[in-house]
Amino acid sequence: MTQNQTSSLRFAGLDGLRAVAVILVVIYHLFPGSPLRGGFVGVDVFFVISGFLITSLLLRPSRLGRLGTPRRLIDFWRRRARRLLPALAVVVTVCATAAWLLGGDLLVGMGRQVLGAATFSYNWLAVADGTDYFTATAPELFRNFWSLAVEEQFYVVWPLLLPLVLLIPGRWVRVALLVVAAGGSAWWMAQLVGAGDVTRAYFGTDAHAFGLLLGIALALTIVNMPEKAWMRGRGMQVTSLFIGVVGLGAIVIAALMPESPDTATFPGALLLATVGSLLAVLAGAWPGSWFGRGLDVAPLRWIGDRSYGIYLWHWPVLVLVLVGTQGFGPEAGVPVMAGLLALVLSVTAATLSYRFVEQPLRRYGFRRSLRVLGQRIAGTAVARFTGLAALTVAVVAIGGTTGAIVNAPHASSAAAMIHLGAQAVEEASQTPAPVSSDEPVLPTASPSPDVPGELGATGEPAESGEPGAGASESVIVVPDGTQITAVGDSVMLASAPSLIEQFPGITVDAEVSRSIWAAPDILNALAENGGLRENVVVALGTNGPVDWGVLDQMVQIVGADRNLILVNAHAPRDWIPGVNADLDAFAGSHRKVWVADWSGAIGARTDLLAGDGIHPGRGGGDVFAACVESAFQTIEKERIRAEKRFEQAPSGRAPRVPFPE
User: Fold this and answer.
1) Is 540 among the domain residues?
2) Long-range contacts: 71-80, Cβ < 8 Å, 24+?
3) Of the ranges 2-11, 370-379, 394-403, 584-593, which one carries the lowest mean pLDDT score?
4) 549: which of 24, 175, 460, 645 is 20 to 30 A away, CA to CA?
């Protein structure tokens, strides 16, 4: 507010607020099981701080001339480049080189990611590529750079627009204009989310600009306002402290709100965090602020100074740690120990970068830093060694980044299998289905050599002497594809080529990201169109917990004359054990409901899965189809047992029903 504050741009509390923002984001990513399920709102705290600080910087008097002159604009952009580019270049080259060494799905989209980081366009390139921020089939190494792109676009455009805004007469008219623009941005996000395009809403500079715009409005309101004696009075200090605490509370509440792909989060929770940030910034910028001094305690200020580097490093390091230790990225869950390791590595890397890269380049600039490096190489033996070592590391990192881009596959292994599955389903839908036969059909394809050939509904081998074991007393009838309707998610879709081969004529209705909640509507639509066959296979346990009420609806729709086979789930996600236990319990308490044990069969052959540890490769698809076939074998064995019990029952006595009613 005061001339002193505006010149130094050391508003009290902002370093501490930066620390709060980066802590929220880091906990959200590295420890997803924590209560801070909406910790991503820390990004919106950064947006408010950036809008406020950059506008304050542009409004302060400068020896380089008036705002908007070419000399002053170039000086502003040069200082921004010194602040942002060195750390960014180090993170990109080091992490891309590490990804090149690990290889596989980690390299998918590397060229686009590096280009987006280098040109400040990461968010728009991701949108154009069809990236989904909330579901992924491959770990995206620099996904967190989308927010840096939004800020960097703001740094480029806003200095050109601010002089035009200042031509509008009246401080409050200008502030009102910015507030209206922020409201329009939030409204646009809500419209995009309502249309189902959450990633576009979240990544888009236009839809996610409200934090920056409200930060600008706050700067236009208070920067260069004359300071009055009453502002430092005890009553105003207590008031500003209360406002700051309320602001922090709003940020924390927003971070505790569970994420949902609707307007309650986008923009609801984001706006709550944004308003909280505005209150906290205002309280910290107040003359003599108690709140600002309290928030800038040493630990928080230390983190705040390094918050940019910590934010840059934490996500790529987490991805590298997970892929290096368990073969798949954060989309499949983050073990606590992996999160702790990533935290230690990220803070260490950010600290070293701050000390040896960011600070020297901010102090000396690019050209002088290169001269210093040249002097070291030409200096004493020790200086020459350190200079050559730094140069060697830079060359190796640049070479590794080039290798990562050149060797990047076009699609992840999971995405490739899902695509092949979708093609197989499309081709099968255009091929006339074979005529169903009433003759018994023996299994025509054996499971994978490593998968037991005689599995029960729970994946256990058939007991010796039972029908179907060894030399069978009765023919085990497996229904052909014309008697099967299959409904599932992307796991079934990736397995579709094997299902179609194993069961010619099968109908497969599978899509990415489906959950069990979609099943009743799908089954109802199939029933109404005559597409529900004698055997209904449902595989919808991968994308979230199951619900018994929904399962009951499925049983009602399928009816008593059909078999319902529920395929259990396998994925490195925390809800999977509960899903499988619920499916077993449900099948055990319902007649004509069975479980195909995909989890048990593939658990010993995870090498047949794609790089995400979830979707089957071609061999994994064969295991999936074999599990479904084994469930049908179990159904037939139970039918044979029931017939034998009926035949052996004493005359006049009803046989025991082999299933609970």
Assistant:
1) yes
2) 73/159, 73/160, 76/159, 77/155, 77/156, 77/159, 78/365, 80/152, 80/155
3) 2-11
4) 460
> Largest alpha-carbon pair distance within the chain?
109
Domain extent, residue 227, equals 1-60+168-296
Residues 6+ apart with CB under 8 A from 597: 455, 457, 458, 459, 568, 627, 630
Strand 535-539 and strand 593-596: the pairing is unpaired
Q: Is 384 among the domain residues? A: no
Q: Which of 296, 326, 356 is the last residue of a domain?
A: 296
Regarding predicted confidence, which is higher, 219 or 613?
A: 219
Where does the pLDDT of residue 112 fall: very low under 50, low under 70, confident under 90, or very high at 90 and above? very high
Which amino acid does the sequence have at 499? L
Is a pLDDT exceeding 80 seen at residue 512?
A: yes
Residue 143 lies in a domain: no
Residue type at position 521:
D
**pLDDT at position 48 over 50:** yes
3-state helix, strand, coil in the chain (%, to 5): 65, 5, 30
Query: How far apart are alpha carbons 283 and 286 in whole angstroms?
Result: 5
Rounded CA separation 536/527 (Å) = 11
Contact call for residues 56 and 9 (beta carbons, < 8 A): yes
Higher pLDDT, 253 or 32: 253
- Side chain identity at residue 82, one-letter code: R
pLDDT for residue 468: 43
